[in-house]
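Example 3.
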Amino acid sequence: MASPPPKSPEQTEKSKKYDRQLRLWGDHGQVLLENAKVCLINATTLGAEILKSLILPGIGAFTIVDGETVTEEDTGSNFFLDYDSVGMPRARVATQSLLELNADVHGDYIDETPEHILSHTQNFFNKFNIVIGTSLPEKVLIPLSKHLWEANVPLIVCRSIGFLGYIRLQVKEHTVIEAHPDNENPDLRLINPWPELKVHLEKTDISKLDNKERSHVPALTILYYFIKKFQEHNNGALPRSRSDKDEIRKMIQESAVCDENGVQILEDNFQEAIHLVNIGINPQIIPTQLKKILEDDCCTHLTQDSSPFWIMCAGLRELVQAEESLPVRGTLPDMASDSGSYIALQQIYQKKALSQSEFVYRRVCQIVTDLGIQQDIISEQEVKLFCKHCSELYVMRGSCIADEYEKNSPDLSVYLEDPDSLMFSYVVLRGLERFLGEYNVYPGHLDDQVEPDVLKLKIITGKLLSEWRCTQILRDERVHEVCRYGGAELHSVSAVLGGIAAHEAIKLLTHQYKPLNNTFIYDAITSSSATYTL
Amino acid sequence: MAECHEADQKRWNNLRKVLERAGPFCHPEFEHDSDLLTFILTSCPILIIGAGGLGCELLKDLVLMGFQQIHIIDMDTIDLSNLNRQFLFRRKDIGCSKAEVAAAFINKRVTNCQIIPHFCKIQDKDESFYREFCMIVCGLDSIVARRWINGMLVSLLEYEDGVLKTTSIIPLVDGGTEGFKGNARVILPGMSACVECTLDLYPPQITYPLCTIANTPRLPEHCIEYAKVMLWPKENPFNVPLDGDDPQHTGWIYEKSLERALEFNIPGVTYRLVQGVIKNIIPAVASTNAVIAGICATEVFKIATNCYVPLKNYLVFNDVDGIYTYTYEAEKKENCLVCSQIPQTLTIPDPTKMKLKEIIALFTESSQYQMKSPGLTTMIDGKSKTLYMSAIKSIEERTRKNLNKTLVELDLRDGCEILVADATSPNTMVVRLNYLSADVEMK
């Protein structure tokens, strides 16, 4: 007989469609994405590829700014410009075919050059959550970079030429709560447990358990018991050194009992306790990076304009000052144990985490009241998430691209010591931009101009290096190679860069995962890449 | 006609620059001229395996890198949850063949290209099909399928006096993604490390011990596994095997998992988690697929045109924390099961004790073999004898009794050959038994 149809929770169309990505950045990340407005300047192959990987996961809206018309060459590398559209405005055609990707996304376009917009309606760009520019000439890049830096709008600048790619991220300040680290040690607090945990752990005397009970004790309880034993043998001193840890491992090993056949065996949970020694015994310390965040001016001097992140940091700071430790994460790794013992332990950790996040929330509410800002700016749920991830908080402060070009000549000599450094590609690309500014055409654009352009570009890069007071010499081959491209944009190289740049945009919009800081070079010839902070 | 040709030339101007001009970093054997473009446009057929997240990207990338003759093969149909990244599909296409919809889309969008879809399993095609391609690119989520095509390409290799004929090599470019991580590799079958040489790179699937599921659940996953592995077969609520795509089935498992979790006070059973565990869902986003497919397509272009030295031979990508890439050369395994040409031997300490089921367990559990459900046959006195085969019910029933017999009881002598067939390879593997106590008296 068939069961009656179950009453499972209704899944919305959206949660079904986005299922595979919601498992990564969660519903709260998706909300931020769906509220985002993105501006793309120049619907080049690379530009369209970036937007594609933002439209598919469902950003709120995009606007394309592009004053060009579609060329035959465009249709050979840009998937979103078909052959019949040659001669039409590129912004319009790209917008139309990109919109087909996702009915939930809004899109429009402005059929004007970015120069035009910058000189007429500069504040146009302020309404976006992020601006992405591809193939920008220096004369647009520099004022745009300055303007967005002032307006506090993140900017991603990208270029794809031949087998070479460049991504530069400009953001004044970016804060991350969920960094999603690949490996994270469990937060156990066996050294210096809080009273409830201590009482609970001390209820179990390992030496008095029968074989069945032994096989059901969680590794945490075992390890705590042997830490205590160690202290008894060492006048109360806590285990610290490697040999102390070895001694504890030995004690656990030697506690093995005999089974009914007289064979000595060490149960799974005892093995797990041995594995836990290293991370379980390290005293919980506040990471230096977090200390810095809590001492940051933004945290200690809040204003009405402070972001929720910094207000929560201030709340956390008060807890850290009161308790001299971070809030407990409140989750435990799985360990061999009977259900009851494990769940009891888990509940103690959860309860502690909850009471600490409640403390921080109360402080946050008080701070918000004192600052005289809107009460509901930060929810209890957000504070909970914040406390759970407090050991991975991350603040990135970027630099303005215009400064890199105008004021602070970058100090590249350290990188240029290595003749194979991809920093040389950065130099070539800067030379290329200057070449474009001077001659208004890509070096090597015409078949019979490759050789003369190599000479011109060599002079330009030579000048650049001496302006930057670098004594290293750029090998002719690198200049020749970029002239060989003649400005060609290759689809597969732009596809790689497009995916990468789009994900950086997603990081900025969702405030999850650590973004690029701040310059990325991709060399498709050798399939290698490098990151530099300029 | 001439006008069309000229316009077409203009369309490919970007590719012409890198193919018709010499360069200082090019492959030493690169011959820059206009024939190269004609070659990839007209005479370099490529096969894409998989029309999913990577497959859609690969198809777009390769067509716009000038490859106009592409076949794409996939047995799957389109699901709503594909639409966040498989950008050639629309809501109206749900339920249709991925390969067919993808091919039709590209043929319509890109002038002059010829994409031919195959809505079937890769196992449905034989050697003569695979032999037709210059190169094969994989965008798969199945390790078994990867191993199968790898085995197929190795079996197409021809040797002359023990020397590999390079004309028989069909390069394999393989991509894989999971969340924000991915990898791309270039395999020259017979020359460089093959899928089988590096089998240990694939992480084992997470499994939970049955006794934990049955007696001491602690995690929400344990509760879900309980409903799936123990309750479903027992209660058989819909009289059919569990189908993760059927919302009624998922709903049933969800309810039962919740009951179980409630009983043990275990927090965290959600509908999303239930789906994830039942279907073993791997998270996926558009951006990572774009990156890995782009890298694979670039390698295909390098190999086909000789413009640069291809990736040697393995690249890993990760953009969880900043952007990270790393390349290294995976090494060919001396005694690789598939590509080494070295006969496999199985050393048996004591054939009077070793049972057939232990040999089968070795084939399925050891990291070296990782087979799914191997079928074993042998030749005794010139006659073929099936030792065990689980795939066909009647044969399974007839051969089941052999599982508990020892090798001696099965009349298997030192040095005899066992033929092993499995879903992970198109070919039968020959294993020679090597008894350490060789002077065993045979009955």
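Residues 348 and 435 of chain B are 5 Å apart (CA to CA). Chain B touches chain A through 87 residues (CB under 8 Å).
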